[in-house]
Amino acid sequence: MSIQRVYKNKKIDVLDEQGNKIGEVCFNPEDVGAYDAFLNILDKIVESQRKVKDIGEIEDFTDEEIENLKGTEDLEGLEDTFSKMKAIFQITVDLVDEINKDIDSIFGEGITELFLQGSKDIELLMPLLDGVMPIFQEAREQKTDKYLNKPKNDVMA
Questions:
Q1: Are 22 and 114 in contact (CB under 8 A)?
Q2: For residue 150, what is the DSSP state?
């Protein structure tokens, strides 16, 4: 007697700009825990966007205003703008730090570094998140379709 292990992990190559393989993402799209962690990442992104929006508009500097800056004394009227910018940057840094752990727990240690390359640029993670989202969704649909498409008179199906 033997028991055969079932392997459900999906492997996706990570390519650089020239199409060279630089790594691999491996995950089980049918793992409810992984899908829950993925949804939590998306929730954290949405929540961070809400926080940034709550900070309010940041006034753009005109080219003339930038050219006329002579020293730090010219920055005195801009404290509100710099304060808002700092708050937005901190929200982004906190978000990246937080979802790095979540991403590595789903896809493996070091995956975030593969995409971020030491930066805190959330946009660098979007190809990963956008790429795996349909795979998770398809796995969920297949799981739920199995139960939703049963004939109503078939109690044992």
A1: yes
A2: S
pLDDT tens, 51-79? 999 998 887 777 776 677 766 666 666 77
What pTM was estimated for this model as a whole? 0.77
Element (H, E) at 55: helix 32-55
> Which residue type, as a one-letter code, is found at position 75?
L
Hey, which bits of the chain come out as E strands?
10-15, 21-27
Phi and psi of 25, rounded to 5°?
Answer: -100, 130
The rounded distance, in Å, linking the Cα atoms of 61 and 75 is: 12
Does residue 34 contact residue 28 with C-beta atoms inside 8 Å? yes
pLDDT for 88 beyond 70: yes
Query: Two tokens at 123?
Result: 């946009």
List the beta bridge partners of residue 26: 11
In one letter, which amino acid is 52? Answer: V
Query: How buried is residue 138: exposed, middle or buried, by Cβ count under 10 Å (0-12/13-18/19+)?
Result: exposed
